Structure prediction request, 382 residues.
Amino acid sequence: MRLALAIASRFLLSSKSQSVLIALGIGVGIGVQVFIGSLITGLQVSLIDTTIGNSAHITITSRNADRTIDDWQELYARVSQNPKYAATSATLTRPGFTVTNNQFETILIRGFQLPQADGIYNLSQALIAGEFRSGEVVIGRELATELNIEPGDEITILTGAGQRSQAVVSGLIDLKVAAINRSWVLMDLSTAQELLKIENLVTAIEIQLPDVFTAREEAERLKTELDEYLRVENWKDQNEQLLTGLQGQSTSSLMIQIFVIIAISLGITSVLAITVMQKSRQIGILKAMGIKDRQASLIFLFQGLMLGILGGILGIAIGLGLAFSFTKFAVNPDGSPLVPLVIVPTFLIGSGLVAIAASILASLAPARRSQKLDPMEVIRNG
Prediction:
């Protein structure tokens, strides 16, 4: 085996330019695979984060006519004690209107448990002015612009039940979704209960999970444990089109990667097959000197292995370089990357192993051909 490895190294070094071109070809192919895989992963992470990153993954609501949850403190205590949940919060949500200078705007009154809800909605970082204060409200940036409101001003809130209340705006928030910024009026839970004249009631228990893709399974488990009057919803059932799009992206990425690997394999096979013809005289002489057929075939398998290792390393470097460059050229107006760079070590290692495997498989045909060479015939015919 050592002899076959030494001969394989000598063959590669004797044709340095050819060996470099083969390794570079493998590197470019694997680089494209790494770049596309990283780009698709980053795009999916961005889509998931934008869609449900700062929202509840599982929502427990009521089937009652008034949509309120009875004995919600007991339910919340049960749910919040689950160590598998990243964050839990009880919320009170009701539609309403705000009136300023005879201008009516439809709003959604939302009362949160603070700071528990901060773990779901990231409210503290979304604040762009002012702060959350008990007894006061925070409104979205778009709503503040439409109503010409600044922190410290008062707004008039009309509830669905006809109550009319005055509230001080203590801050402005930007939740990165225009529709939410235009409609949500946020406050702590006790303030919402007092405003809506709903004592000690909530409309939902919201849960965020560490792994967003386990939401459906966890929701099904909760359904078997909770009372029948409670409804358990999860983000996956509410975003089927998004999941279909993500699946389509993953499938297209896989297909591209498969064809890249096929192209690499065909290239290596053809080049090594030519090498067998070029080195047939040397192989014939080596066989006449006592090298076995198995050792002769190992020469080309080792060539494939070494080319695969070198090409895999080059490919990972090229792919990461392309992905990093893309984040510098494709940017949002604020300078942040249009698609975040997401590096998955297992994917990089897998890409390197794919390069090695493809190279070894591609060298099987030349190896079998070298094994069948008749040394006397090769030497006789030159």
Q: What stands out?
A: The beta strands are 58-62, 87-100, 103-112, 127-130, 137-140, 154-159, 164-173, 184-188, 204-208, 230-234. The mean pLDDT is 82. The chain has two domains: 2-51+242-381, 58-208. Residues 240-278 form the longest helix (39 residues).
